[in-house]
Amino acid sequence: MLLTGQVICLVGASSGIGAGVAEGLYREGAKVIIGARRLNKLEDVVKLCNDNHPNSQGQIHPVECDVTSRESVQKLFDTACEQYSCSSVDAIVNCAGVMYFTKMKNAQMDQWDQTVDVNCKGATNCMGVAIPPMVEAKKGKIISITSDAGVRDFPNLAVYCASKRFVETLTEITRRELVGTGVTLHTILPGDVKGTDLLLRNTDTEAADAMGVSIGVPVGEGFAREQLIDPNDIANAVITMLTSPPHVAINSILIEPRDQE
Ligand SMILES: NC(=O)C1=CN([C@@H]2O[C@H](COP(=O)(O)OP(=O)(O)OC[C@H]3O[C@@H](n4cnc5c(N)ncnc54)[C@H](OP(=O)(O)O)[C@@H]3O)[C@@H](O)[C@H]2O)C=CC1
Ligand SMILES: N[C@@H](C=O)C(=O)O
């Protein structure tokens, strides 16, 4: 097992990519605290981990967490430290995010607000809570799941692309600021990942039609296998970052389906 004994906070773990990352971390023996708003779905993830990996030395505990609230993120971090008797954690992985296809002319302003709150403020809350104790402990990795939208321009996703760029820029500048402290910052930029709930709450059918996607169904329904990657591919990217030699920082990984243009 590659991560035996590592204490890891994982937010946005109740479905999709986060649920897949939770399983990968548990499989590799980490002590994981998983967070999201839907506690019942987190409990399903815990059960899945136990059922699928009965011989793992890992531990996994669910905590209700809303990343838009700094108190809620602090509670998740404190729970990890209490549960696993430490003053900081080895890593925090932030998978929490929302994505709404919206045409700017349709002004879905509530969805824009939520995108900024969850994707941007969620990232600053995770960093604000984790960085001071990590610097004190002289170690720690902060991994944010951004998107290929963090480096590519997708029409009908302007606010989403901007939110992912925010996290990319925040990460790169913070990474440079913390050089020498032992704390490192990383992003993973996935292309289309299948089997996630990301599209379920979309409502702008004009924008979705323009992108050629169906809303209200899990991402990837109707797509061929080679057109999409899956949550386990992202879990493996996270594990690669967490297990690099001490003198190496894998700062970012852009990971897309092989045949994506
Ligand atoms: N699927 C894809 O193709 C791609 C996804 N991504 C990114 O990956 C991340 C995960 O998305 P994906 O797995 O696809 O989608 P899902 O909708 O399946 O997962 C989103 C996760 O974010 C959590 N979340 C949303 N709002 C909050 C909040 N306020 N507080 C805490 N957790 C929250 C959800 O939990 P809950 O609702 O229980 O709070 C859920 O666990 C996102 O950042 C997304 O932008 C990037 C590139 C491609
Ligand atoms: N693949 C990206 C944009 O469409 C994403 O889902 O983040």
From TrEMBL:
Its EC number is 1.1.1.298, 1.1.1.381. The keyword Oxidoreductase applies. One of its GO terms (cellular component) is endoplasmic reticulum. GO terms for biological process: fatty acid elongation. GO terms for molecular function: 3-hydroxypropionate dehydrogenase (NADP+) activity. Belongs to the short-chain dehydrogenases/reductases (SDR) family. NADP-dependent dehydrogenase with broad substrate specificity acting on 3-hydroxy acids. Catalyzes the NADP-dependent oxidation of L-allo-threonine to L-2-amino-3-keto-butyrate, which is spontaneously decarboxylated into aminoacetone. Also acts on D-threonine, L-serine, D-serine, D-3-hydroxyisobutyrate, L-3-hydroxyisobutyrate, D-glycerate and L-glycerate. Able to catalyze the reduction of the malonic semialdehyde to 3-hydroxypropionic acid. This is NADP-dependent 3-hydroxy acid dehydrogenase YdfG.
